[in-house]
Amino acid sequence: MSRGRLRILSAIGIGCYALAAIAGFFVLADHQGYALLVPLWIAHGVLLAVLLSRLCADETALSAALLVGASLAAVYVADLARDELTLDRRGERVTATVVRDWPAPDRGRGADTYDYALARRDGTRLPGPALQAASGSLAVGQTVTVLADPAGVLRPRLPGDTGATGEALGVGAFALIALGVVGATARRGALVARRREERARVAEQEHTLREALRTASADDHGFVEVHPAHYPDLPHRRAAGIAGELGMAPADEPGSWRFRR
Asked: What's the gap between Cα 54 and its chain centre?
């Protein structure tokens, strides 16, 4: 398998691992505290640095830091939308009546948000936190259809609300950034490897030319002629420089690969 194909497969594997890590940390964030999550994030960053070094040895620490940052941001945004996502999954549509409203105690400064207590048609209170909506959007006695949590743990939501759409887009954006970091690192690694191979090829051709000029026999006029096709990566100027290092002078013809001893 060629090195280029191996690098592509490695980049795909690292990208899949980064996405799996985002999903795994999102699950762990709901059940574990910082005492476990912080060491896991550190280990995750070290592992990414090791994996990315297989793609490009240069600036591995920077690439790993960017990848961990994008992953951490994706997990954070997803965690903000955890309740919304859970309600979308297990919520039930319930027809209820607004029985009381009051300013939301946790509203931000200048935010016009109210809490609305809801009751079912039989008069029983809808369990769980109150519905939050803009002031004046609902009136006491009004009948509304809401998406409610059967367990009574999550806050109900009006079906027309956007829910976790914004957060989901944010998670997707940060996940794409993480994949972009992997792709950019792989591309840079390919460029670095190509330059390294070019330098090695030029060095080998210079060594071969130097040995050819040193050991070749001169013609009757004292010239040693070499064939430029054997040194495709060496310009004539560099060949003349190597000849000069060996005490040889180029022929009078411009561009000639004949050198006088």
From this structure: 16
Kindly report whether the global pTM for this prediction surpasses the value 0.85. no
What confidence category does residue 162 fall into, taking pLDDT thresholds of 50, 70 and 90? low
Burial class (CB in 10 A: 0-12, 13-18, 19+), 111: exposed
Which residue, chain included where needed, has tokens 């990848």?
Answer: 67
Cα–Cα distance for residue pair 138/130, rounded to 1 Å: 13
- Sign, CA torsion 94/97/100/103: positive
User: Tell me: the pLDDT tens digits for 12-38?
Assistant: 999 999 999 999 998 888 777 777 888
**Helix (H/G/I), strand (E/B), else coil: 45:** helix
Walk across the sheet containing 223-225 and list its strands.
223-225, 258-260, 249-250
Please state, in angstroms and rounded to a whole number, the distance separating the CA atoms of residues 14 and 60. Answer: 13
Hey, is 2 helix, strand or coil? coil
Banded model confidence at residue 206, pLDDT cuts 50, 70, 90: very high
Residues in a beta bridge with 114: 103, 133
> What are the angstrom distances between the C-alpha of 173 and each of 8, 70, 180?
22, 9, 10
Pick from 81, 132, 136: nearest CA to 107: 132
Cβ(125)–Cβ(114) under 8 Å? Answer: no
pLDDT in tens, 37-46: 889 999 999 9
